[in-house]
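#struct-pred
JK: can someone run the complex with S-adenosylmethionine? inputs below
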Amino acid sequence: MQSFCGVGNPFKAGPVSEGESLLDVGCGAGIDLIVASHYVGETGRICGIDITPEMLKIAEQNIESMGLGNVEVREGSAESIPYEDDTFDIVISNGVLNLSTRKKMAFLEIFRVLGPGGRLQFADIFLEGERARETPCTLEAWSD
Ligand SMILES: C[S@@+](CC[C@H](N)C(=O)[O-])C[C@H]1O[C@@H](n2cnc3c(N)ncnc32)[C@H](O)[C@@H]1O
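RT: done, structure tokens with the ligand placed:
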């Protein structure tokens, strides 16, 4: 939990059921991977990708300490997801897509790896109103 930096609960957006396959884009330390693995059970498959090797190392340690055999992590970005087309039933993401500088590419990649009828459930932060345009290049704009 020390390394958790999600901004919400992607599991609130819909159920994750036994036997399903799920990808967490920007899994960080892997907390949502651990939650997801309990939902899908031993017949399901959980994968996580992140661009930061240090976070993946922590995720691997967390997965190992929980003794989870159905979870794997790989280095990869939202904009270039290292999985085949139609691989997952569900993609989740928590506090990551706002960081992408190529959001359209990220969504295209997510839809590519989702199978027919697949679901994207993500929690994120966004700006409302005109503030982003008024202060686009200040430190304040990043923390507002
Ligand atoms: C705010 S943290 C959220 C981590 C995790 N989802 C959680 O709930 O704790 C953002 C994470 O996204 C990763 N990240 C940032 N940009 C990314 C991208 N374009 N593709 C994949 N991961 C990314 C970072 O390395 C970091 O681990």
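RT: quick notes.
Residues 36 and 79 are 22 Å apart (CA to CA).
Residues 4-6, 25-29, 31-32, 50-52, 55, 77-79, 94-96, 99-100 surround S-adenosylmethionine (CB under 6 Å).
JK: thanks, will look after standup
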